[in-house]
Structures
1.
Amino acid sequence: SYDRGSTFNVFVGKGQLIAGMDKALVGMCVNERRFVQIPPKLAYGSEGVSGVIPPNAVLHFDVLLIDLWNSEDEVQVETYFKPEACPRTVQVSDFVRYHYNGTFLDGTLFDSSHNRMRTYDTYVGIGWLIPGMDQGLLGMCVGEKRIITIPPFLAYGEEGDGKEIPGQASLVFDVALLDLHNPKDGVAVEKQHVPEHCERTSQAGDFVRYHYNGTLLDGTLFDSSYARNRTYDTYIGKGYVIAGMDEGLLGVCVGERRRITIPPHLGYGEEGRGKIPGSAVLIFDIHVVDFHNPSDSVSITVNHKPSNCSVLSKKGDYLKYHYNASLLDGTLLDSTLSLGKTYNIVLGSGQVVVGMDMGLQDMCVGERRRVVIPPHLGYGEEGVEGEVPGSAVLVFDIELLELVSGLPEGYMFVWNGEVSPNLFEEIDQNHDGEVLLDEFSEYIQTQVDSGKGKLAPGFDFEKIVRNMFSNQDRDGNGKVTAEEFKLKDQEAKEQHDEL
């Protein structure tokens, strides 16, 4: 048989062999080698075989058993590893990805997906595989390893495959299942942690910041936002992410952790991408850090309001307040309490982000409130390097400690009483018909100190005075004349922040 380059294939005990060989092969194991001596009466007797075996010849056979099977055999399955968790097993019409080594019964390797460094991907139970493999893969878990032994009539039969597999060969597949899904599968969501307080859940059109670990079904990590040390930030429900993630991120709470399982037709499909193989099921373990909607405005929750709350903050007021600033997930960003001093601003003057200007409106001294500011009213997409992440929702817990009423809009100085009819002459102390900056500044300071006038609170005195003086110095020569000098109510058609 070695000279012919093919094994001798025959049924035993059915008269297809000489009687001695029929007896000699009984009880042999695959890979067993026997030296068989057969007397003439159990071989070719007194006739022999013309030109080959003489009459009354004793025959000697050196036999090596390569393969054996019976027509009543079925597919044999031996599981040698099974994961503890097995939420689902292979069923008819599932699509699976698996690695395998294919050998004959004697251990000879004829094929291996490992050598190709690529899984074998196929549907199960619909005729895409040999019948024995269609049967042998049923009931497997992802991560399971099993030996599937297939008789030839459930494999490649009498003809073999015309290549590596000869006719009548039993096949042994050592299979490790990596992935399975069904084309009818949708996104599966497993909520692992939901905060007790969840004022709002995400909706289509929201902008979400979240951390994630992305793995394949066999646990292979393909991506992680934690490794990059920054959240993944995106709109949801608008096609900015794969369809399965668009769906899986709907209805989440800030602080929620969930596992999102995405079949390939809602992931990266048959082609895959980068480290993600084609037809791969994806698992994302996500932690939602915050979300907002571009239409969101500032949210204000009053936690305490004094019984006497008649004076409310307005634009131009000078405010002193304490705050704790944090992200929606509770990460502390900043606190005036830790610095031991208040934060002081002129409301509506652009000294804080727009959302804070809005959040401090109509507040009375002693009031405590929580102000939630969406990023477009905070620090935007860029954030503040090293301090505030980009596109972050900000939470300020505020206590107003002091309020100094500001001036009417457009004014930096007002009189507390009647204005002198000889105002220019009073300012022009040396009576030379010209007022210089030093004279102007000294006069204003005197009015403020005596209580006759009031400057806009919270601004630098010198800057205010210079601004007032420059508005009066209409020709810009550093001097103000009587012709140039006008009070605010004398300038109905001019817009200046001066007297």
2.
Amino acid sequence: SNPLLSLPVLQAAHCQMIKDLSACLLGQNLRVDCRYENKTDNPLTYEFSITKDNRKHVIHSTISVSENIYRSRANVTMHKNLVCLHLQSFTTSDEGIYMCELRATNDYTGNQIKNITVIKDKLEKCAGFSLLIQNTSWLLLLLLSLPLLQAVDFVSL
């Protein structure tokens, strides 16, 4: 890890720090990974939003209310140092500036915000199995790759 991140000065300044925001396509779905450096055990709240035509639309959030058009299509998974937005059936109408906002309870340093511009034609496919293993959908992929009969037995365990 970067020795600079462990400096006490930085720890005092930020309890949680967004390190990286990336987007990729997993089949027809968009995945936005918001990676952060965790400096506190306090509960983390998040908000994923999109800005298009100069309007902000909340996609999924524990901070405010998400918009109806996204609510049925979006879900968020949380892992160690990673908050992951999954948006189903991604199309060009979902292009825009995606924003990840993180806030730790009782953290007075303010919110951490990072933006990424998402354009369908420029998106890469999500990296292979190593990333997926953090994600619940790896089980689904495993099932799909097994012969049908075995998969049925596997489900009924």
